[in-house]
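Teaching note: in complex prediction, the entire set of molecules is handled at once rather than each chain in isolation. The prompt given to students was simply: 'Predict the structure of this complex.' The entities are:
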Amino acid sequence: MTASTWTTTLGRWTQVAVRRGFLWPTIAVVAVLLLSPLLSTSTELKWTLWLAFGILAMSLTLVWGISGIFSFGQNAFFGVGGYAFAVAAFNIYPATGETLSALLIAACVAALFTALLGYVTFYGRVGDVYLAIVTLAVTLILYTVMSSTAGPEYRIGKAYLGGFNGMPSVPGIAFGTGELGYGGLFAFAVCLAGALYIFARFLLTGRYGEILAGIRENETRMELLGYNVRFHKLGIFVIGGAIAGIGGGLFTAWGTFINPSVFSLQQAALVVIWVMVGGRGSLMGAFVGVAVVQWISDQADKIVAQQTPLILGILLLAMVLAFPGGIVPAISRWFNRARKDGKRKRDAVNAAPTQVPSPETKPENENGGVPLPGGRISTHHVGKRFGGSVALDDVTLEFGQHSIHAVVGPNGAGKSTLFGLISGRHKVTQGRVELNGLDVTRMPTHQRARHGLGVKLQVPSIFLGLSVQQNIALALNAPRKRKQTRPPATTVLAMIGLLEKTHETASNLSHGEQQWLEIGMLIAQNPSVMLFDEPAAGMTQEERKRTVELVQKLSINHTVIVVEHDMAFVRALGAPVVMLYRGNVFRHGNFDELSNDDAVRNIYLGRKRDA
Amino acid sequence: MDEIVVIGLSVLTSIAILLLTSLGLAVVFGLMRIVNMAHGEFLMIGAFTTTVAVRSLELPIWLAILCAPVVCGLVGALVELAFIRPLYGRRLIDTLLATFGLSLILYQVAINIFGTAPPGIGTPSGWIEIGHYTVSYYSLFLPVAALVITALLYVLFKFTRYGLLSRAAAHNPDMASVLGVEVRRVNLVTFALGCALAGLGGGLLSPMVAVSPGVGQTYIGQAFMTVITGGPAFLLGTLSASALLGGISNIVSQLFTTLWGLTALLVTAIVLVRLLPNGISGSWSRQL
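The expected output is the structure of the full assembly:
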């Protein structure tokens, strides 16, 4: 290999590193290592502890701030890792003279523990609050359990668990040439924290980060797009657990000691406070938060000794009441605003009139990708009971290929239930649902999506905190079963008229635009069957007209089913209509046939019960 | 035979303790969707109120126990006004974190006042003999007290005006306020009631356990598990969950050690949550 290829490879790597944010942490690690000879031993010791805590805080940032899963158990995983390291080190160190394997074991044990807990909670579909409580209860019970392991019978190999007093004289970090000194340990901690930080950045700047953001913003939409939400939540939870476990191992190695106080409420509070102070969404904030809070608590301890819980409590309360978004982000926002204000004043002087983008610049002659085979969905004698009431009695329907179908009916006719049964939100009590000839009756929502079912909900279900482009990207990258071509993002954006708002955050869009964005995600997903729940709800006359046009266009290549209340919209669609009434199919036909049918008119106008 | 009776009584006492320590949490969570992390500290305040009333004021124990819910109810009302009210409409995690902060503050304040291991009060005397065993009257009294309290709460929520209003406010706060329910005031009462119940639990436990500032933390983990396992019917669900979890953990404790009893409680609760994500009462049609 020549020198020039080396330089280009190196150049490409540097580019990737800069783009994904690996460069600054690497520089920081090297800088700290170079400066470390200048540090006093006590500073090195203190900073090593902070790094162990920072790793712990970062694990909570990943799980909570990035993925939206509030876990109180992060310090439990830290403690489990700490104990696992101690037990492993006692057993391994005398034989091999190194404890890196013990650190690896700490990560694995913590990951395993997290996986068990996460499996139960995520796959049990336990609510978010319950997860917080379950993880906290586990932490507290671990505290009690570990405190009562004082007897000599609580021994794992050569390691005694030691009950309330914990495990003293644990071997520190060693590479086979004796335990590291303070300086060595510090250098190791810096490299470890840097490596874990870069690993986390690596996760977040790639596709996985996109998925996590999607889950944080809107789990339902992620499932409708075909993502296995529970699996991904479990995944990040376990990764967070493993990182916390490594932090715990480092903590044990730092003090050559571990006791049950790692499972205390105080410790659980600390982790949350660090992350809140540093800002929930920022990985670096985790380390900053640790440094700030630990510094404050050290200073406070000099003034009033041994009042840590009081100080932590006041800090937590103040954070929640005054700075729910975090102190560091609040300061940086304030700083940015001050800077922007200055800039705006300067800009105002030589401002030019901005050009207003014309609304009719979008190419409308494209359609949503290549025609797909299939596109058939059918129900066979499906019924659904909620408790004693029958929502859907016995419905057999067949929606053929590449056409529009409208499903209408008065309130309580079973429209929403039918919709829920097809999309997978409800489980049928009887009958069978088939998608492209495949029995999907027992299939979870995300699997149906992968087999070619796209769903537009009534209330726009989009990723409010993400940009228009990110919304579309999540749909474009959604997993799928068959080779399904997907249209390029710009085509989709043009079709829904949001080309000019590509980088706008979705929450800033108007209600109508949000509806369009959701339809855009459907187009991007390019499923063979598209299910629309009241697409015209809350739209203006003009928007409604454009929606009709778009739905008609989509029906060229897709099977489109529209569940609708609005008769004018159904008439405009000009599609065959299925009318549901009291949980059964009441009439089948085109709009004019139905509107001239006396029985139908009676039901809608409520004149006579039986016509 | 005697042994079975004694074990049975001990199981009943465990269930009662679990129920007494969980009810307040269940009421606040069930009706307000607030996870009161300071619940354990209200237990602690109740226990200390009783201890102080007996030791310093020399009140009879029964009266001293009744002081506990009064004091805790008042403190609870203040807490609601100062810290919970500003957080209505915010995410659930916020009230959880705020009460968590409060819990730490109350814990440290208790240490500053009472120290880490303050003197306690004795169990009211009197016991019955069953064969070779003796069982104190007090541990027989606890299950009765727990049942009576649950029954009174049931009556309160089922048949009184407050009960109706509080359930309306829990079910649909916007609708309730449109219909003229003062949701704020109802919530204030509910929160204070939950704290008072915690205090009563603490008061009732104080003659049996070593009362220290950390006493609440001993029980709160189990209380959380009980409330989650109980599910949406916050009275009867919590009662069922206490019976199940308290029963299992007590029997396992007697067979092995307390450690295994606790572990059994945790494992049972977690398995139940996996099988019945909405708790024991998740599929019931009743609300209480």
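Point out the following to students. Chain A touches chain B through 46 residues (CB under 8 Å). The radius of gyration of chain A is 30 Å.
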